[in-house]
Write a structure and sequence with these properties.
Layout lengths: L1 H22 L11 H6 L4 H6 L4 H6 L4 H7 L4 H8 L8 E2 L2 E6 L6 E6 L6 E2 L15 H13 L15 H6 L14 H10 L13 E8 L2 E6 L10 E2 L5 E2 L2 E6 L1
Antiparallel strand pairs: 1-2, 2-3, 3-9, 4-8, 5-6, 6-7
């Protein structure tokens, strides 16, 4: 009788343990395992960060910064807090090179050269004030396109076609994305300071680029040549043809 009771108890013990094992979610961070073992079990990067695992520990375990961003772009704030913004500046990501990190939500702005298509005209020449702030390029680009849709030739010049810089960029499907815009004046400076001056990116030092910032009839333009223009935007002419530098936001 005792043997039978022992056998039943033993079976019940293993059955309970098997049930417990089946209820364990391997994708939840387990502090008894190494980071590498947790990764192999499918624990998400978000799961590691929520468990207090540092960015440095994840990088040491083989997780890349790109993987951190792909999990959630707001992880950029953790990266900046741990490693500094320099860890992100100039990284080839989401179609361009990171030049700005929003300190509130971790969203990014990236930019890349698109001058291989050639130089383009500004479009209709009319009076318009657009913003110079970093991140205003998308609205600026749309304002300029809207202005070209209207008859603004009084006191200016009607370009007369859609083959102008801002329409070309707005219609662009490039590097897998179709939400490109022409960056603002201050964004151009940030691209120079945070990417080009570090020897990163793909920007052409031999040309002048349009920005989307304009005061009245005068648009800001910029060159990337270290020895002459030095990354300082300056007022150009809407009557000129210049190269395209494109940007997009990553939310």
């Amino acid at each position: 009788m005792k043997k039978i009771f022992f056998l039943v108890a033993l079976i019940a013990f293993f059955s309970c343990n098997e049930g417990d094992d089946q209820n364990i979610d391997l994708t939840v961070y387990n502090p008894l395992l190494t980071v590498v073992e947790n990764i192999a079990n499918g624990v998400s990067i978000e799961g590691f960060l929520n468990a207090g695992i540092t960015v440095e520990t994840l990088l040491d375990a083989g997780v890349t910064i790109t993987e951190l961003l792909n999990e959630n772009v707001s992880n950029s704030l953790e990266i900046v807090s741990s490693l500094g913004a320099e860890a992100l500046y100039g990284l080839d990501y989401a179609g361009g090179y990171i030049f700005h990190i929003n300190g509130n939500d971790g969203s990014l702005i990236v930019a890349t050269d698109y001058s291989q298509i050639g130089n383009f005209s500004w479009g209709d020449i009319f009076s318009l004030d657009t913003n110079a702030d970093i991140g205003s390029g998308d609205l600026n680009t749309q304002l300029i396109i809207d202005g070209n849709l209207n008859d603004n030739s009084s006191g200016g010049f009607e370009f007369g076609s859609d083959d102008y810089a801002f329409k070309v960029v707005s219609d662009l499907d490039y590097n897998g994305y179709n939400d490109w815009f022409v960056p603002s004046r201050d964004s151009m400076s940030a691209i120079y300071d945070n990417v080009h001056s570090l020897g990163l990116g793909n920007f052409d030092e031999t040309i002048i680029y349009w920005s989307s910032t304009k005061i009245g009839y005068d648009p800001y333009v910029m060159g990337f040549n270290f020895d002459s223009w030095g990354g300082e935007p300056f007022l150009g002419s809407c009557a000129s043809q210049n190269g395209l530098l494109i940007a997009r936001k990553v939310n």
